[in-house]
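Support case: S-adenosylmethionine complex. Customer-provided input:
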Amino acid sequence: MSSVSNEKELGRNEILSFMKEENEEKLKELYKKAYKIKLDNVGDKVYYRGIIEFSNICQKNCNYCGIRKSNSDVHRFTMSEEEILESAKWSYENSYGSLVLQSGERQDEEYIEFVTGLIEKIKKLSNGELGITLSLGEQTFETYEKWYNAGAHRYLLRIETSNKELYNKLHPADHKFETRINCLKDLKKIGYQVGTGVMIGLPEQTEEDLVDDILFFKDMDIDMIGMGPYIVSEKTPIGEIAQNSKEIKKKRFELGLKMIALTRIYLKDINIAATTALQALNPVGREAGLKAGANIIMPVITHKNYRKDYQLYDNKPCIDDNAVECKACLENRIKGVGDKIGYGEWGDSLHYKNKK
Ligand code: SAM
Ligand code: SF4
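Agent response - structure generated as follows:
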């Protein structure tokens, strides 16, 4: 493996050789380099996006997801507007600069209006100060525009994998890879800061696919990345065939860190989240993500009563905690890494700002 240089951009072959690297010392060097590039380009502040997972009702059937429509074991819920606004108020009062509204995918009028009302009311209760990211799946141009005009300014829609053949195996036939790409283009056209990402360590996914994912992020001129290891949800079609040994989980975790580090080195000024899925595989997974170049954390602020019903995968961490416990726990974790918390700040993607 060659050492990482600051002067020149990594090429595909070089990224691939790092992706396949197993030597621990060399990987430590890679993470150290990525951390330095983070400090040089986006600084040492970690920005919070408190995530409210407000409904697990979904019209889709992604073959890996625990809350897919066909999973009849799931107790379905939608938080009331009052409960969601209460969580948003908590975020504001606790100086979380931004929040994420996430749910299963729905495209009906009632849902679209519900979300529009939420965005407007969250803006109002925070005097416009809370930044709003949406993670609500595929929608029409008009819906994305409506939510943007209501006050949302970032949107997270993972491509899941940039390998179309693999994408088709992960989703039923009515999910179209092209639609996903068009949604990302629509979001950009409207003016959102656009986030995407992939699941890492999926059955049949190769290291080459992961390298192509990083190149895809660059080609699409993406502003923010939310990616994490694939984690088995047993009662799903992919969960039934996926390996789940200790070794494979370790590999998924390591690939997750390599993806963060290589994306940071390759794309430099974007925002990258250290996701909860890293912590599901390793108790200090999110800290390791920050050390490998991530600069965003998405603390779950969903009310404790609902967390157990939003299980995208088995053994999701923190389901017994509440927002106050999560806050205290995270502060200690981030302090341990040596980073600071950007309380009260939006922490927008510098990549997005630099384009303006
Ligand atoms: N429904 C919206 C969507 O699909 O974009 C937002 C919610 S969805 C649950 C958010 C993300 O969860 C998906 O983009 C997917 O990558 C991730 N996810 C679902 N099942 C997962 C699993 N078994 N392991 C890891 N991530 C998973
Ligand atoms: Fe629904 Fe999103 Fe899960 Fe797919 S990943 S089944 S769209 S919640």
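The first strand starts at residue 45 and ends at 55.

Case will auto-close in a few days if no follow-up is received.
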